[in-house]
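Weekly sync notes, structure subgroup
Attendees: PM, AL, DS (notes)

Item 1: joint prediction request from the bench team. They want all two components modeled as one assembly rather than separately. Inputs as received:
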Amino acid sequence: MLLIDCPCCGERPEDEFGFGGDATVRHPNEAGAGDPPGIEAFADYLYLRDNPKGWHSEFWVHRYGCRRWLVVERHTVTHEVRSVGLAASGGEG
Amino acid sequence: MRYSILSLARQALAGHAGWPEAWRKPAPKPRYDVVIIGGGGHGLASAYYLAKLHGIRNVAVLERGWIGGGNTGRNTTIVRSNYFLKDNAFFYEHALKLWEGLSRDLNFNVMFSQRGNIILSHDFGGAEGAKMRYNALRLNGIDGEYLSREEVRRRVPDLDFSPTARFPVFGAVNQVRSGVARHDAVAWGYARAADALGVDIIENCEVTGFDIVGGEVRGVRTTRGDIAAGKVGIAVAGHSGQVAAMAGLRLPIETHLLQAMVSEPVKPFIDTVVISPGLHVYVSQTDKGEVLMGGALDGYNSYSQRGTWPTIEDVVSASVSLFPRLRGLRLMRTWGGVMDMTMDGSPIISKTPIRHLYIDGGWCYGGFKATPGSGWVFAHTIANDAPHRLNEGYTLERFRSGRTLTERGLGNVPHHH
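Output from the run, pasted for the record:
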């Protein structure tokens, strides 16, 4: 069982949360991929992932708690959680 | 040695002391025509078909661990070809046809048992959707049948048919030729058969990099030295992204964790595979009598090969609601595998932007059933430097061109089957 230390609610079990995927992916409009961004930039944004074996920065939503979106740094081998922040403040506590 | 009733009798009389090793343990040669990275079912099958069908016998299979230690030995052993989209339907049907003759072809009993694959519907809408899919199957020339509630009751009497059932059985569709196989035997059988054709199977040999010159692969660097290669194929399942990254490629893949579990063994009472798409659970019984249960992904990126309790609870509670008799059983064993989930739920068997480097991956959690077909088309792709008709759609470029293959019609999520 993962325990995620929600900045609003404290340490809560993983089944209160929903997983939102890689938090480092940026929409081409945000990432400054040209104006308008090319089709390649959109394909990369939609489909390609770094998929690291190690520390992974990812979105979670506290679905059955405060319902805030969080940015969690978690290790994809040990499942250790290193940091949790609010997505709205760019991942800061 | 060819396995037969005679060799068995001879060895039995000799006290079983004379069985030879099933495959050699060669040291790597300095150069091979083809190097396959990954000694799972797919890699071994690719090497076998390269040697058997394409006459390319100077082949090495490099395995980081040991044969049978990865996903080939970590699945729920289900084999089926009940797909909707034509690319998938024809590919998996070809694999199923290879399964039907596999034990004889490999001279190794993979215990392929065609016991059907009963997909339950719990309501009218679900049954209509299932019928649409099975009509598509029949149009593609693949077998399927629709079962009414009463027919399901005769076939699987231990499902919950009571008026208070939480998930009542409305009907089902069955692919009769589906089945299960002994997963370890698939790895061992392909390894032994490939070895007999001259393929070097090199265990405890981890690839640490590629030798790429001018956009063309020339060989691999490994923990057992550099190996030159005319062509290189990647077949490493959950670590596809890791190995491809060594060649500078980014893939439309996330690695996720899938668990499965067995109960303590009991007398036979389920002689088929029962699936509930609504509950996302599949239940069968092994030859040892264990009730084998699988479900959905744990739901977050992981390379850990071990899962957590919420998924186990989901799978077990869903199984118990289908089969109330399971209630008193104890869970004996759980395990996890790492899955290469593509963003459209279909595999990639393709050339890459690097010449003579090929990739076979993105199996999501449908890799086991594909094993013979995957090896067959990957061998063709490597030998001819071009895909076979059956894997033309499984390109890397489809994610750029928009020709994705989404069985479920969802968007870009790595959670498709």
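Discussion: Chain B touches chain A at residues 239, 241-242, 250-255, 299-304, 308-310, 343, 399-400, 412, 414 (CB under 8 Å).
Action: AL to compare against the crosslinking data before next sync.
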